[in-house]
């Protein structure tokens, strides 16, 4: 099997639930690929794979996990000059109010 011929930065998100938002910060234009474990294996072996994301022209970008699974994020420069530094974080969910609830008075 052919291996990919360009460098990339890999983030293993492990098992993560649907609806979680991931924020990727970049220092330059780069490709960002959010993919399942199976698609990451295809990617590493230079085979056709599916992913969410694409060319990130601004930073940061946010991607939402579409289903419960083992996920990976890859940042690469394929087709772009130079190198991009990157970082990733899980965006905390907004806190829901926990105070007393009142019914509308009529």
From TrEMBL:
Q: Which Gene3D superfamilies match?
A: Atu1913-like
Q: Which domain of life is it from?
A: Bacteria
Where does the record place the region Disordered? 84-106
Q: Which Pfam families match?
A: DUF1883
- DUF1883 domain span: 6-94
Name listed for the protein in its UniProt record: Uncharacterized protein DUF1883
The organism of origin for this protein: Mycoplana dimorpha
**What does the record give as the organism's lineage?**
Bacteria, Pseudomonadati, Pseudomonadota, Alphaproteobacteria, Hyphomicrobiales
């Amino acid at each position: 099997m052919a291996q990919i011929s360009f460098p990339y930065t890999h983030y293993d998100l492990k098992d993560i639930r649907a609806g979680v938002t991931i924020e990727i910060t970049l220092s330059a234009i780069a490709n960002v690929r959010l993919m399942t474990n199976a698609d990451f294996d295809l990617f590493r072996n230079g085979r056709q794979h599916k992913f969410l994301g694409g060319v990130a022209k601004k930073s940061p970008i946010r991607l939402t996990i579409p289903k419960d699974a083992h996920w990976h994020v890859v940042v690469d420069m394929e087709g772009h000059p130079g190198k991009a530094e990157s970082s990733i974080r899980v965006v905390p969910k907004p806190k829901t109010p926990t105070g007393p609830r009142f019914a509308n008075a009529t």
